[in-house]
Specification:
single chain; 173 residues; DUF6286; three-stranded mixed sheet; 2 domains; membrane; DUF6286 domain-containing protein; alpha+beta; transmembrane helix; two-stranded antiparallel sheet
């Protein structure tokens, strides 16, 4: 049995929660309408007031705008429901079923950059298939970007196959 890839929650999860809250609000409005229609409360029905406000033989610009917004929202929800969930971890290279979190890759890259000669501080950021390393170099050092790339590449070899870019700047004196 093959293990499933680690994935985030699908985008449609949040829309399901919002939809459930909207259905609860609709149930509240319908319950208030039923209570007002039976005479259990002295207040007028909210639903009847809303329908009376919309009862106009001429088309309203507000109704048209709300209809277009509802159609676009429905299309957006449909697309979000069909999109697969994104992976939450990167697959390590090799034949093993090993996954590594992006934050772990960032920490390893930052540590490797900081161990390069002349580097005072390093940080990493993973975006999709790219790793961006920022390094703060000590003033007057001959340390180069190539050394940082080599250190980071050596540290991440076998763990992740990412495109590495290094942005280095010299610290002020």
């Amino acid at each position: 049995m093959k293990a499933r890839d680690p994935r985030r929650l699908p985008a449609a999860t949040w829309f399901g929660l919002v939809g459930a809250l909207l259905l609860a609000a609709l149930a509240l409005v319908l319950g208030q309408h039923a209570a007002a229609a039976r005479g259990w409360t002295g207040a007028d029905s909210w639903l009847s007031a809303a329908v009376a406000a919309l009862d106009d033989p001429a088309p309203s610009a507000l109704v048209l705008a709300c209809g277009i917004a509802a159609a676009l929202l429905g299309l957006w929800l449909l697309v979000a429901a069909c999109l697969p969930a994104r992976r939450s971890h990167a697959r390590a290279t090799g034949r093993s079923d090993l996954w590594i979190a992006p934050r772990a890759i960032e920490a390893l890259a930052a540590d490797a950059a900081e161990r390069a000669p002349g580097v005072l501080h390093g940080s990493g950021e993973v975006r999709r298939r790219r790793l961006r390393v920022e390094a703060l170099l000590s003033p007057g050092t001959e340390a180069g970007v190539a050394g940082i790339v080599d250190r980071v590449g050596d540290r991440l070899s076998g763990l992740a196959d990412l495109e590495v870019s290094v942005q280095a700047k010299e610290a002020s004196r």
